[in-house]
Hints:
Elements lengths: L2 H13 L9 E2 L3 E3 L3 E8 L8 E7 L4 E6 L6 E15 L2 E17 L5 E9 L6 E5 L1 E5 L3 E4 L17 E6 L1 H5 L2 E3 L2 E9 L7 E10 L5 E8 L2 E12 L2 E6 L4 E3 L4 E4 L5 E7 L8 E8 L3 E10 L26
Parallel strand pairs: 2-12, 14-23
Antiparallel strand pairs: 1-3, 3-8, 4-7, 4-10, 5-8, 6-7, 9-12, 10-11, 13-14, 14-15, 15-20, 15-21, 16-19, 16-22, 17-18, 17-21, 22-23
Bound molecules: copper (II) ion.
Amino acid sequence: xxxxxxxxxxxxxxxxxxxxxxxxxxxxxxxxxxxxxxxxxxxxxxxxxxxxxxxxxxxxxxxxxxxxxxxxxxxxxxxxxxxxxxxxxxxxxxxxxxxxxxxxxxxxxxxxxxxxxxxxxxxxxxxxxxxxxxxxxxxxxxxxxxxxxxxxxxxxxxxxxxxxxxxxxxxxxxxxxxxxxxxxxxxxxxxxxxxxxxxxxxxxxxxxxxxxxxxxxxxxxxxxxxxxxxxxxxxxxxxxxxxxxxxxxxxxxxxxxxxxxxxxxxxxxxxxxxxxxxxxxxxxxxxxxxxxxxxxxxxxxxxxxxxxxxxxxxxxxxxxxxxxx
Length: 325
Ligand SMILES: [Cu+2]
């Protein structure tokens, strides 16, 4: 090989990662736990030049309420199955749904590009990390199995035919806005709890966007037996918390921040420790706006608010406070 050919080969290797859609991939590679998700599978070539005649995708655990989009010229079929755990979506409990989609009977030329689409949602309890969608592409001649999933702790780099990847971020879910009439809730989060702890705290920002006063009066959560609304005060240099019997008043236009060291929600009698990356929901009750279900994201012990540039505030040890057993 001459020098110039070597250089050309090196240039090609450098360019290789930019070749469009070498694999079957998802157009949007990242979403948040608890968010709805539109999956667009991109198919950029056939099997060694042979046209694609069918595409099958397996839906991983934690991707729920999936509906495939029909494609003109393709036959659509689905297989349903049970979810790893039931999920609550828009107030409905779902225990099973579409786990596999096949588009078949088409003919997508090797030289052409197409997209295969489904809609769904990522359950609020999906762990942060990557969800893998194995895809089998069948062609007139041969097939491509995009089904390789990296072993725990490994990356997809170097895999010859990786499954389509969807990264799940926990913190983005906390940033989502939950509107309910004239109340807006943002950045609901909690901290991971050490093993034996039976209490956790919840933080969020609440805005009354309406023109009449409202009030956060109560709440329930699937994470603990009880939910209380607390305030934190410093008396003689000692931090103490007390339940707010009247709840939290929300004047028209007012934003109230529940944060470490201030007002907060208290989850009493945790059913299990709050684990980083997981999530749970709490239903908050407002005097006028009514009930509203809010997804909480769990941040690591010692973390500050998700997406906040403020440094983490010192841990408060709720277990030391009277009445928090
Ligand atoms: Cu408290």
